[in-house]
Amino acid sequence: EEARKKGRYIGIGFSTYIEACGIAPSAVVGALGARAGLYESSIVRVQPTGKVTVYTGSHAHGQGHETTFAQIVADTLGVPLEDVEVVHGDTESVPFGMGTYGSRSLAVGGSALRKGLDKVIEKATKIAAHLLEAAEEDLEFANGEFTVKGTDRKISFGEVALAAYVPHNYPEGLEPGLEFSTFYDPANFTFPFGAHIAVVEVDPDTGKVTLLRYVAVDDVGNVINPMIVDGQVHGGLAQGIAQALLEEAAYDEDGQLITGSFLEYAIPRADDLISFEVDRTVTPCPHNPLGVKGAGETGTIASTPAIVNAVIDALSPLGITDLQMPLTPSRVWAAIQQANA
Q: 3-state DSSP call for residue 45?
């Protein structure tokens, strides 16, 4: 209000959302006409050395799957991160998968991986119990070691892995090796949600919109790698803000696209954006083993309406209640001139 009294057109825009993503389960999409199942698959192969190779049908193209999936393996099995190899994208070696889209990679592909790791631990527990001459229910597994409860008797995951491939002292009737293939078909979508706030200033002489502040608070369930999630939110914000202010498929009177290259199509540059303020609440997803939700689209969903709402709020003293995106300087300037006429 103080800024407006000084003739500055500053506005605040709010946007709240809830998204259905991590598209699944197969029965639901089948009823909607899809001709494919929307499960995901994984293979977990523990080597005799204790190192782990995982094969996933969720192909990465910049989201950081190699890091996040390796973290899941390392944290679950208690092995060093550098001892985990993630293989994806090679159709001659990876299991059949349904792909990376719709914010489903971790919720579906990561869950398939986690369920495969649970199978590894279940079999490894049988081997460890035999080697320690203890009952399976008397063992605890933590930090890469099987320990007999209430004692200091223990054996490392690496020793168990070696025993699985050199089965000289081995449970009777248990097949050698430590490798599992797993398919995971989710029980439901995941539902991330959040609230975003944008503060903008509009120059009444030029129509230029300047972003002053942007705050994003999202709930994507449990977070495996905070830096990767922040990066995905930042990228989504850039895309959504650009939709509100810059990007447009424009055509001439003959129907010819005139923004068909990056010479004409306005994508955001670093100086078009600011440092974003991001935070999270954590409400774990109740139906997948990781408690995670989709994160890749949160910024794109909330930022566009937050920016437009902020610009409309800034121009509300002029009686402007609606503007067509993108809110380019020329379009905003024209609306101001019309309001002042």
A: strand
The model's pLDDT over 35-68, given as tens digits with 9 standing for 90+, comes to 888 899 999 999 999 999 999 989 888 889 999 9
Q: Which residues contact 216 (CB under 8 A, 6 or more apart)?
A: 194, 196, 197, 233, 237, 276, 277, 278, 279, 298, 299, 302, 303
Contacts of 264 (CB under 8 A, 6+ apart): 250, 258
| 2-21+190-340, CATH topology level | Aldehyde Oxidoreductase; domain 4 (3.30.365)
Answer whether 273's CB lies under 8 Å from 95's CB: no
What are 190-232's pLDDT values in tens digits? Answer: 999 999 999 999 999 999 999 999 999 999 999 999 999 999 9
How many Å apart are CA 5 and CA 324, to the nearest integer?
A: 27
Q: Which residue do the tokens 């937050």 mark?
A: 306
61 φ, ψ (degrees, to nearest 5): -140, 50
In single-letter form, the type of residue at position 295 comes to A
Decide: 307 and 273 in contact? Cβ < 8 Å.
no
Look up the CATH number of domain 26-184.
3.30.365.10
Residue 113 has φ and ψ, to the nearest 5°, of: -65, -45
Q: What pTM was computed for the model?
A: 0.91
